[in-house]
Amino acid sequence: MTEYETIRVERRGRVAWITLDRPEALNALNAQLMHELVDAATSLDADDAIGAIVVTGSEKAFAAGADIKEMASKTTAEMRDANHFGPWLEFARVKKPVIAVVSGYALGGGFELALMCDVILASDSATFGFPEIGLGVIPGIGGTQRILRIVGYPKAAELVLTGRRIDAAEAERQGIVSRVVPAAELLTQTEELAAAIANKSLPALVAAKAALDGALETGLEAGLALEAEQFTALFDTADQKEGMAAFREKREPDFTHR
Ligand code: CO8
């Protein structure tokens, strides 16, 4: 497996865990971390032995944003040339389910990274926010676009325009996180949830994510057509035959992920 310096990658059954690992900078997303994370996620996406990817940080920080020290002296032309945006698009295009597990700070780009994932589990210690406005910039890797689609315009505007931080309970009330978990139970609940997802049929997981993603991009009619197509295509998979046979035979399915 590739050696990385700013992340750790582990496989546990069909679940891959990517842990952001720049403790000296509260996992700030510098260019190296971005490239390593995207490389790991796209490799795992192409690996049939993996059904779901967990992205997590440390107890203190999921990620405290893009690396301010790396960006501080850059000009507009330099930021354009650096292409910080393409790799994040690649991450957001991962076809398998991605679960963000957030403890501590998820700020700026860290919050935006969590929003690129499909499911967000938050420890009760988690804090979310877009502090960019206080730095004289704005979210740049999807924050304005994704938060608005979740919470609606006025709440999104308040978060983006003030930089106010919200705790896990408020994030759950606003529908930003899937679930808040007491810190002591975060690992167990993540393992259970990730395994429950990863052990499902891989073609069905990929189809389900494509249909959900489609809803963000299209109107209802086109979205219904996309869902119907994804649904229908699964009838040529071995797992659809196995899943439905297992139901009729009153047993658990034994998916081969084909
Ligand atoms: N970038 C670089 N270094 C950071 C960052 C960061 N975002 N966050 C923390 N660090 C470093 C600190 O500088 C410090 O290092 P040192 O000891 O060498 O000074 C170390 O991590 C520990 O941090 P603190 O001492 O500040 O820890 P505290 O517990 O006192 O505070 C906070 C924790 C509140 C999280 C605080 O560190 C903080 O406010 N961090 C910055 C948060 C922020 O503003 N994030 C937004 C950044 S901009 C952004 O994300 C834009 C996204 C779009 C990107 C587009 C492509 C590039």
Automatic annotation (TrEMBL):
One of its GO terms (molecular function) is enoyl-CoA hydratase activity. It is an enzyme of class 4 (lyase). Its EC number is 4.2.1.17. GO terms for biological process: fatty acid beta-oxidation. It comes from the Bacteria. Keywords: Lyase. InterPro entries: ClpP/crotonase-like_dom_sf (IPR029045), Enoyl-CoA_hyd/isom_CS (IPR018376), Enoyl-CoA_hydra/iso (IPR001753), Enoyl-CoA_hydra_C (IPR014748). The keyword ATP-binding does not apply. It catalyses: a 4-saturated-(3S)-3-hydroxyacyl-CoA = a (3E)-enoyl-CoA + H2O; a (3S)-3-hydroxyacyl-CoA = a (2E)-enoyl-CoA + H2O. Coiled coil: none annotated. Belongs to the enoyl-CoA hydratase/isomerase family. This is enoyl-CoA hydratase.
